[in-house]
Design a protein that fits this description.
Blueprint lengths: L1 E2 L8 H16 L10 E15 L2 E8 L8 E4 L3 E8 L7 E4 L25 E7 L5 E7 L9 E7 L14 E10 L4 H9 L9 E4 L18 E4 L4 E8 L5 E6 L4 E6 L2 E8 L2 E3 L4 E7 L6 E9 L13 E7 L35 E2 L6 H8 L18 E13 L14 E7 L2 E3 L9 H7 L8 E2 L20 H4 L5 E3 L1 E5 L3 E9 L8 E5 L4 E8 L4 H4 L10 E2 L1 E4 L3 E9 L3 E7 L2 H6 L2 E6 L36 E3 L1
Parallel strand pairs: 2-5, 2-36, 4-9, 10-13, 12-20, 22-28, 24-26, 25-27, 27-35
Antiparallel strand pairs: 1-21, 2-3, 5-7, 6-8, 8-9, 10-11, 13-18, 14-17, 14-19, 15-16, 15-18, 19-20, 22-23, 28-33, 29-32, 29-34, 30-31, 30-33, 34-35
Catalytic activity: 4 hydroquinone + O2 = 4 benzosemiquinone + 2 H2O
Main location: secreted
GO molecular function, one term: metal ion binding
Length: 634
């Protein structure tokens, strides 16, 4: 265990929270529908200088903010976001987890659903939020830049907070875990496609602040502070926006009640640690039931142990700070109400030392496995049953491999200067379409030769072996024979209504990492997961066909597997990829094409009016949307 201090035993109040959630769900009644609204934002993407770790860094952000603006909507609302690109990079914005039903055109993936928004150009996203509520997020879907181009996307029930299937919280708080980079993110991402891995984040952050574990000038850096009132319940909307790492989150002296994941309610359970991979969101209730004082909120990344390659990983921490009146009993600790310096930094230094949590070890991967195993769906009215008849079975092996440099057909393998490391799905590495071509969605819709530029994702790997053999992790003769691969634009087609079952199998080829797999446009039912090699003769019996959790990002564990099902009922061209930035940049991705159904309601409509193509300029926004260059000192 990594010590951040002591942790207290769970209180009866915290242990009873899960029961309270269930009771509220059972006795809740319907309220009149709220009117749908139109929510409109303007995102100005530009570069600004921010200071962290005693160094000024030029970063690409939205509206001068890190994290970016929170979009708050009610289920049923229409959303319009004008993106004004004043950065030097091509950008798109992806609405992570928003299903975009019959509206794949707004999914925001360059050269898959749209042309990128080039510098000094603009683009407007328009979509409806239907049938979803909870915490999602938005981020740039271009290499590297989502580290600073991201923000929360919160969908509230149309019956208002009283219809939550848990006690109404006093406040709702986004908690975004991320990275602080002092490197050029676009260059870092480009280097990874060239097998150059020399750039790493300089710190981890909570809501954009590095916290007091970092001390570059003799003065601890500011961290995020959550002010709480004794006895109140807070809904934490937790997002992992980091590029490389899964995180463990703990608050000293407190328990969480997990109530949702990826904007889907789950059967509530109580835990003192949350495991969250890049791309995931977790909603958790926090009851402020501790003695008044200060309690660290710790976030520690994990990584696979040796013999895996070890990379720099940084813990960070914020603070939970109890606000009490000056007339509070003298039996309790008097807590300063001084506001400290701006930006939500730590409060006055005269207070007692904060309580510090005991964190999982950086090489502890089994805690994540158990956390994700605890997720089950809350079976609400209208809950969709698990489809029993499966039309398509895929067994997708996730790993690394090598291709020869300079287009050569043969080369020396095994930590050689002649080959290049890539990531694969069933031993093929995804080749992203060039910006000079037609986006795959447009080619699919107009039947203009999409098939001539793509290759079918195989249903199974070309060979079977002991996928989780740890002897494959280091370079050597055993893994060398499994290295050779190639690049192609991988596509898999599904008929409308197909029930698709996929087993994602992590491997030990040159690494033993987990793999957070994200599917655009759909939720996946997580049937089961396991450590080791998937065995269909034994593991099918473990499937949860009663209340599996619905997720848009599922975790294939370190040297393990996860089995999912989804219904291909959303026509369009949808990206499926690992949400680790290094895996995505290296090619662990594919495209799922869902064909039209038999009716207008099951078919992809034409693109919106004035939807731009790569050969046409996007008209500029009105003059009032102009570039603001600022310095932000925190």
């Amino acid at each position: 265990m990594v010590s951040m201090g002591s942790q207290r035993l769970p209180t009866e109040a915290a242990a009873a929270m899960a029961l309270a959630v269930a009771i509220v769900f059972l006795v809740s009644t319907a309220a009149p529908l709220a009117s749908a609204a139109s929510v409109e934002h303007t995102f100005i993407v530009n570069q600004t200088k921010m200071t962290r770790l005693c160094k000024e860094t030029l970063v690409t952000v939205v509206n001068g903010q890190l994290p970016g603006p929170t979009i708050e909507v009610t289920e049923g609302d229409s959303v319009t976001v004008h993106v004004v690109n004043r950065s030097p990079y091509n950008v798109t914005i992806h609405w992570h987890g928003v299903k975009q039903f019959q509206n794949c055109w707004a999914d925001g993936v360059p050269m898959i659903t749209q042309c990128p928004i080039t510098p000094n150009k603009n683009f407007t996203y328009q979509f409806d939020v239907i049938g979803q509520e909870g915490t999602l997020w938005w981020h740039a879907h271009v290499p590297g830049l989502r580290a600073t181009l991201h923000g929360a996307f919160i969908i509230r029930p149309r019956h208002r907070a009283k219809s939550y299937p848990f006690p109404k919280p006093y406040k709702e708080i986004p908690v975004i875990i991320g990275d602080w980079w002092e490197k050029d993110l676009a260059e870092m991402a480009m280097n990874m496609t060239r097998s150059i891995f020399t750039s790493y984040a300089s710190a981890s952050t909570v809501n954009g602040l590095v916290g007091d574990l970092f001390n570059c000038s003799g003065v601890p850096k500011e961290g995020y502070v959550l002010d709480v009132e004794p006895g109140k319940t807070y809904l934490l909307r937790i997002i992992n926006a980091g590029l490389f790492s899964e995180f463990y989150l703990k608050i000293a002296g407190h328990k969480f009640t997990v109530v949702a994941a990826d904007a889907n309610y789950v059967s509530p359970f109580t835990t003192d640690v949350i495991a969250i991979t890049p791309g995931e969101t977790i909603d958790a209730l926090l009851l402020a039931d501790a003695s008044p004082g200060r309690y660290y909120m710790g976030a520690v990344p994990n990584q696979a142990p040796l013999p895996d390659t070890q990379t720099p990983e940084y813990a960070t921490r914020g603070m939970v700070h109890y606000k009490v009146s000056q007339s509070a009993s003298s039996d309790t600790t008097t807590v300063s109400l001084s506001q400290g310096v701006g930006g939500g930094g730590y409060r006055g230094q005269s207070e007692d030392a904060p309580v510090v949590p005991m964190m999982p070890d950086i090489h502890d991967t089994i805690t994540s496995y158990y956390f994700h195993s605890n997720l089950t769906s809350l079976r609400q009215k209208g809950h969709l049953p698990v489809q029993q008849e499966v039309n398509e079975h895929l067994f997708i092996v996730l790993g690394l491999g090598t291709i020869c440099k300079h287009g050569h057909q043969s080369c020396k393998r095994g930590n050689s200067t002649e080959d290049m490391l890539v990531a694969t799905m069933n031993n093929v590495s995804y080749q992203h379409p060039e910006a000079t071509t037609t986006p795959l969605l447009e080619a699919h819709y107009y039947h203009t030769g999409c098939n001539t530029t793509t290759e079918e994702l195989p249903k199974r790997p070309p060979r079977f072996y002991n996928f989780t053999d740890e002897a494959l992790i280091p370079f050597g003769p055993k893994e060398m024979r499994l290295e050779p691969t190639y690049k192609a634009t991988l596509v898999r087609r599904f008929k409308h209504g197909d029930v698709v079952e996929i087993v994602f199998q992590s491997t030990g080829i040159l690494q033993g990492d987990s793999n957070p797999m994200h599917l655009h446009g759909h939720d996946m039912m997580v049937l089961a997961q396991g450590i080791g090699n998937y065995d269909p003769l034994k593991d099918v019996a473990k499937y949860n066909l009663v209340n599996p959790p619905a997720k848009n990002t599922v975790v294939a564990p370190n040297l393990g597997w996860v089995a999912i099902r989804f219904v291909a009922n959303n026509p369009g061209v949808w990206f499926m990829h690992c949400h680790y930035e290094f895996h995505l940049s290296m090619g662990m991705a594919a495209v799922f094409i869902v064909e039209d159904g038999p009716t207008m309601d099951t078919s992809l409509p034409p693109p919106p009016v004035n939807f731009p193509t790569c050969s046409h300029d996007i008209s500029l926004m009105p003059k009032e949307f102009h570039l603001q260059t600022e310095k932000s000192e925190t």
